[in-house]
Amino acid sequence: MSIVFNGLSAYRENGALELVTDLCATVSRIDTGLLTSIPVSTIDQEGVITMTETSIIDPSTPRTFADVIELIQKMDDLSKSRRRDLISALRSMAKFFDLRPEEVPANTYWLGQRLRQFHPKQAGISDKYFANVKSAVLAALKLAGTNNKQTAWQPPMNEAFKGLYNRVPDQSDGFKLSRLFRWCSHQNLSPDQLNDAVIERFEAMTLNETFHKNPAKVVRNAVLTWNRMRDLVEGWPEIILYRAPSRVHWTFALDLFPESFQREVKAWCDRLAMSDIFDEDAPVRANRPTTIEHRRFQIRMMASAIVRMGTPIDEITSLSDLVSIENFQSGIQFMMNRRDGKITEAMFGLATGIKSIARYHVKVDDDHLERLKRLCSKIDQQADRNRKKNKDRLAQFDDPRNLYRLMALPARLMKKAQKPGPKPRSSALLIQSAVVIETLLFCPMRIGNLANLDIDQHLRWIGSGRNQRLFITIPGDQVKNDTPLYYELTGASADIMRHYIDEARPCLSDTPSTALFPKLDGTPKNPADLSNQIKRQILAETGLTVNAHLFRSLASKIHNLVSAGDAATISHVLGDRIETILKSYAQFEQKSALETYQLSVNTVRGRGQEAV
């Protein structure tokens, strides 16, 4: 016999039928009104229902916001004002994503994924208005009986891919293939048409779906799972798929090169660590371990690039093979080819490192060294020092409202921490984030120096009360470029720091410590952890993506808004050479120069109108 309940059909054999509502929960929370039938093949003695994959979705189920709007317009049992509010909310939500209602899937899973990348501040709306719109949209979707299953908004699988999907033995593997199979079905492809070109098109589509947390991983998992199913599932298509990794490891390990080359690399790195001022062969100052490892990797990069350009690896027997003009040019050319002819700042750093080897280790003649210097100068002039990610993040602050939101955030976090509600440690972390952001705004040091600030070693207070001033001094041997740093905090900035040290900091460590930003065990926080902490806080409060290092570039942008052309000040503030600052400062100078020029055009135009 069968029982029909809200469009669900169920069957039983020789026993009492469990409540049909239990079945509804089994169907992944799909609204019971959405299915015309769910065929059930068997019900065992324990009442476990086995269903086939042939459930039919009601074609009248709304698939887009436009369908939902049309349905709500026909709901006479709703008041006119309620219908108006729900429809307005649906249209507003579509506008948040710069889409039309007919382009937005009527699916809460899709909506949830997209809203994770959305922040009301960046849309110019209040938190309350956004909450009201979101609430009304969810109510509208519920009233319309939308299908909110995770894959409902994706294209359905055709019969050929569905047949493969149903033969996948593990559900988690099926999930990894689902998106690929649905997309291929939408492209009118069959399993025997899958190839590397199709995978490239699928990856391009997936990467465009910005709301997916890790789109590259979706493609990688699909390819690996497809290939693995060839050995697990009988009759699986004999097609091996390949996806080019996003990051190709093109360098060779040093132990693959001749031993004589490895010995010279070790000798050079040992020299970089020397600190004997009376040794004429020693550098002016010893390099830090991290710098030495970086120099070792640069050697490995240049050697690998030369090999990739056709030189047999067993012919790289000494460091002199890296500094010959022919090999030097060949290695740089390989790296340029990988960047489509673009020269980066990293290439300039590598070139100067190899030039140092030519001068101090190989000791080439003057003519040879001069040619290497000229090549390095050309690379220096053409190097792009503004990375795309850095440019994109700085572009957020072309909107002055975003700059204000960031600069006002420390005070906002302090106020939020003092409200009733947050636990003592949560409140202390809010204050700590406020202090880090405030310090980076006024003292844009590197995050490594900030995270390792010590109250006894680096901080010195002068004065009392509102006249209290904080001096931050960091010796040169603790700074990346050996330039000592001197900063001062006064006024509200000093008050925030004082409050943090006296009230909040004791809640963050169980062990006596002098670290300004301690972990529970009293040791200083890892710089990456501190940077991620404020990155999350800034994103949650403002919708902006800002890591700790961006504050150094932002310092130039802020100062240029007030004192265009004053690169010397930023050079002192950041502790960088004026030559370095001038190169990175140029992007802001150009914008200010253009604005100044356009102001001149408008001024002259105005004078002309007066004369006429």
Descriptive report:
The protein is mostly helical and 612 residues long. It has five domains: 2-57, no CATH class; 76-143, no CATH class; 159-232, no CATH class; 254-382, no CATH class; 390-587, hpI Integrase, Chain A, CATH 1.10.443.10. 55% of the residues lie in helices and 6% in strands. The protein contains 25 helices and nine strands. The termini are far apart. Mean pLDDT is 82; it is low at 1-58.
Jot down its keywords.
612 residues; mainly alpha; three-stranded antiparallel β-sheet; two-stranded antiparallel sheet; 9 strands; 55% helix; globular; disordered N terminus
What's a concise summary of this model?
The protein has 25 helices and nine strands. With 612 residues, the protein is mainly alpha-helical.
